[in-house]
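cache lookup: miss for this entity combination. No prior model stored, computing from scratch. Input as submitted by user K.M.:
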Amino acid sequence: MDSPSPARRHSKKPKYSKFTQQELPACKPILSPGWVITTFAFIGLIFIPVGLASLFASQKVVEIVDRYDVACVPEHLQDDKLAYIQNSTEDKTCTRKLKVPRLMRSPIFIYYELENFYQNHRRYVKSRSDKQLRGKEGEGDTESCSPEAKTSNGSVIVPCGLIAWSMFNDTYGFSINSKVLDVNKKDIAWNSDKYHKFGSDVYPKNFQSGPLIGLSEQEDLIVWMRTAALPTFRKLYGKIEVDLEPNEEIMVTIHNNYNTYSFGGKKRLVLSTTSWIGGKNDFLGMAYLTFGGLSLLIAATFILIHLIRPRSLGDPSYLSWNKNPVGYSN
Amino acid sequence: MARPGRRRDKLRWSKLYTFSCVRPAVLLDTENPPSLQGPGFSRVVYCNQPRVHRKKPFRYPSNYISTTKYNIITFLPKALFEQFRRVANIYFLLAAILSLTPVAPFSAVSMIAPLCFVVGLSMAKEALEDWRRFVQDMKVNSRKVSIHKGGGKFAYKPWQTIRVGDIVKVEKDQFFPADLLLMSSSYDDGICYVETMNLDGETNLKVKRCLEATLPLDDNTAFQDFSAIIRCEDPNPNLYSFVGNFEYDQQVFALDPSQILLRDSKLRNTSYVFGVAIFTGHDSKVMQNATSSPSKRSRIEKKMDQIIYILFTLLVLISLISSIGFAVKTKYGMPEWWYLQPLRTTNLFDPSQPALSGIFHLVTALILYGYLLPISLYVSIELVKVLQAMFINQDIQMYDEETGKPAQARTSNLNEELGQVDTILSDKTGTLTCNQMDFLKCSIAGVSYGIGSSEVEIAAAKQMASEISGAHERVSSSQNPWENNAFRTSEIELESGITCKIDKVRKSAVKGFIFEDNRLMEGNWSKEASADVILLFFRILALCHTAIPEANEETGSFNYESESPDEGAFLVAAREFGFEFCKRTQSSVFVRERHSSSHPIEREFKVLNILEFNSKRKRMSVIVRDESDQILLLCKGADSIIFDKLSKNGRIYEEETCKHLCEYGEAGLRTLALAYRKLEESEYSAWNTEFLKVKTTIGPERDALLENMADLMERDLILVGATAVEDKLQKGVAQCIDKLAQAGLKIWVLTGDKMETAINIGFACSLLRQGMKQICISTTTADPLAQDAKKVAKENISLQITNASQMIKLEKDPHAAFALIIDGKTLSYALEEDMRYAFLNLAVDCASVICCRVSPKQKAMVTRLVKEGTGKTTLAIGDGANDVGMIQEADIGVGISGVEGMQAVMASDFSIAQFRFLERLLVVHGHWCYKRIAQMICYFFYKNIAFGLTLFYFEAYTGFSGQSVYDDWYMLLFNVILTSLPVISLGVFEQDVSSEVCLQFPALYQQGPKNLFFDWYRILGWMANGIYSSLAIFFLSINIFYNQAFRAGGQTADMAAVGTTMFTCIIWAVNIQIALTMSHFTWIQHLFVWGSVATWYLFLLGYGITSPLYSRNAYKILIEALAPAPIYWVSTFLVTAACNMPYLAHISYQRSVNPLDHHVIQEIKYYGKDVEDRHMWTRERSKARQETKIGFSARVDAKIRQLKGKLQKKYSSMGVLQSA
């Protein structure tokens, strides 16, 4: 009675397709010694030139690094740097002399570097309001900015949050042989930040003293607002758009305002040219060389293995039942 | 109503039957009915008054059955509960809830969305599976049966409408829709035949008989005004008991199980029966027996849980490190970090309460590092398994044309377990055999007739023929050509003997008869020397049975309805030989005899008594009076029994017959010996008076007395000959067993059938062979009266087991094989606590194990013993309700769906239409699924460790503040989108070798049971790989993007740039990793793997152009910041290569120095060596199974060894000769 009718019977038959029968055409690459050796040798042969190129590019970069946080504190206040920095009456100006080691072609990028500054701390990273930064209408959006959202009398801070509040405020002036070097502080931030993230109609309010210009113009703020990944970081300060000749002496006038003394942070001024890989960092080149070398070594090992104990591919004597006639084993 | 069956209604079988259904219906004293009050006996059934049962208290469940887990209302809560029973899901739920608080390191949506996705998907799968069950139930519920609707009219209605008290009319070959009380049948004396194969797996028909009182109710109209009351026991699962009273016509009758027709058994040989529904739906005994199938989990999944615990420990550990680090940093560092405004903090970052902050941070960290636990693991595995199951369901090579049923994975969570099976426990009837008998050979008067060969012989011969060429080479290479010739001749003899038979296509024009021998056919037998004995032989075939002939209008001949298929085969054989059994009356059997080609003569034989078959007697006899008034006792039975009862002068043919019986047995045939005895009139009448007296006695000793009477008659027999019937194996069973044996699987046969049959089948499917040492463990019939009979029996069995174990231990020949045969009674002792392990150890040492006469419960117990005792994966396969216990108990239960009963299938995890599909299911699908799932899980853990640990390293650089370097969206998409499809494609499509190779080298299957792909070595290796990758990704990226400008424009990298680069490296590294893991790339894998990488870039692009309010620092990150920077690409390349180099070196090394079997085979296939060098291929194929001890390949190998041994002897004697 419930025996299926022929039609229904038929419908139960699985339909044949290469997919359902798991017979799709497939490539089944075999990891033959040839392939392995070629692959490793190839990786090695690619890596070493790339490594050399990177290393070369990195070496070409001229970089002047000057740590000034200690040096800029007057001798007599060296024991209590914190008091010095917190004392607003003290003169914070400080002059440093930098020697150009090699020819530095423009543009020469000026960075400040902070060490032991946790810009990546969760409390810090979160404390900002993108909405507020973006446009006037988001001014009141300061929820995420705590504890630096509102002033004690309840009016909003623009830009709010710990990041903006703790903005780096040392300034640098450069001169060579008393001739002032122009520092271009434009175009140091990402265009996308300038045009889409920071509104031109957003003006600082209840913020550090400063001229009343739209946030999108304040590129130093924009740069600062991009939190760094590591506690040691550099941020772009400006650009010098003239070449610096070797052995020239640059006079830097620093307004040493920023307090890194309380947490034992270091401040550095960095002048650097760039190459295609960016600034000076030999690590990439070294890493390439290391892994390239390792790769060649592995390739050589496999060549040796292949020479000493060659196994012809598909040699049935390696099948478990041939290796170990009584009982299987892998 | 026209009733063709009425003609034979005059038969009153009860008069003829000796042993069954003779018990007179006891009329109870109305005044004093047996106490059916009290608990357990509350059921009252008002027959034919279903109206009464609409209201309480007689409202019983309807006949609607439901096996679904959920309904619409309970689905949500229940399914949710099921989902959150998984530890990992609870963890993610907590994390999702906590993500709403400020503790969370991520935005809430990035925690909740994946959880909803994952849980939703799993629940959708549950819902789908439950829907399927519902559809299945509906199919059963809507089967139609004829129900009395009042006024003597019956109408077809669906099963589910039956209520207690309904009168139901069941027709021939229909299932009983509920537990019924038999009222009457188409036979005058109210008996009917019932096939209970679905319930207990027994194939012979059972006779049920109604009460005398209800006999007249044999017509539709008779039920017009019928009413009665049944008081009986409450629903219970006991199939063999029933206690109740039947109140009818102011009289009370006792009911017993012989009047009860159980749901899911089938009406046979009876046109129709009427019955009253007593238990309906879930009250019916068979449903009461149905235990909810235990949820099974695969070994791999259990191990996966352990890995999850390891990862959880790791998670807690790094969270602790992180929160301690955080507390320390908060206490000592934070007060100085003025830019964090340490004085205006909440509890989360309070330097004055570092401990409290630390505790809060622990929660944060636990959420943050949750990426170590793959949230999508479960759902991916489930999805993969569903797809794998789909492939199993869709496999056209597991589709049975005859029954129209494809294979079906009923639960998808055991797919990979199919690849790890160690022991198969198989039912016999309906699973290995079709339960169809074919008359193939016979031995009459010491001459063997029948030249056809059994399937076993044919299969073995084929194997031999193909094998011999290979063996040939093996021999010839080592021995000199002269001697090789000798081998060749002997081999040709051997070959020609069988191969000539193969060529003939077996005719199967007549069902049940494949006999071929011109000496007997077409009346030629009368020309044989001992024609009179042959005549007698045929008469025994035609007379000694309990079948009923049924004219077949189409062919003009008769069909026979017999209690057992053997009998049917005999009758068909007799018909073909010219002794057509054509009519049975109450007292006579009519046989149309056709000697030579003359016209048939109808002869009448008066049947005086039938001493019918039962499993204890193992024989049946009829006493007939022929036309010349000669009284004959014709007997057929098991050879051992018959040979015992032969008279001195009846043993003329004993020796030859014995030899033939042996041959038949080896050929896998079922044998019976036939004998007769001439009786004197006086002798018979004396016996008969005594017999009638015994027959009417009532009391417990009646059966014993009857048996004694029968014994008195069945003695001094004269042997006529023997029959050999092929218990037809299902198609391909022998080949399948052979392959499974080669795959290293142990096969146990558990059957309810008798020992002889079981052994025959053992031979038929090459589980046994000549030369195999059979260990029969049996109980000696110790004095049953002895007090400690049980103890004696147990000691005896224990001794047998010890001896057998000793024998195996002392065996020196590596090719020796042992077979263990044990019967149910002995098994019940052997399964007891103190003996089971000794028994198991013995059984494990034997190549094949056959347990006969085992009850369903014992089947389950044996299964549990094997499962727990060996700790290996067991698979139980069966077709009937008697296998349900074993199917549920085993790690994997497989039901045969070809037969009509559904219990086994319903209880099973996989259903296939034929036993032979098991080979493909295990060797192909099991092998693939195991490797796929194993690799998939390993990879899953790898990728999450590689990803999750980078979060930890970074956190250490942020003063343990719980900041992550990645955007929330990256993390959200990592598991769910960016890396899920490749791993799913690995889990669904990976094939180490093609299905043909799997089938050609069943030995490859052993990789599963040996667990080569999911052992701790491998798992920890993968974890180490993950840790290495995380280190490489993090430290390389961090140092490359240290503090300097990262592009020519002078910009330095912020967190977003570093995070995105690192994430790009991860995406590349894990995708290249999976590409290295795969060995089989279809366009799908290519699409998914490379598509995932592409998706990442596309996502980055898309995400980058959404409003910066959403994308925040990732705004235009790719197009503006990263893509133009060469260092981004260069570092991706470096990190990806660095991450995968060790793995590549490792697998290359493994492969070149220590290749696994599938590696070598892949290579052979890849370079086409199998085509170039076919000999090598076949040689390897045969070598791969040299360890196999069962299956016909082993049988052939044994034969070849034997031949070689003979040759060696010959050679040495020749050598002696020559030297002399």
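stored under new cache key. Chain B is about 45% helix and 15% strand.
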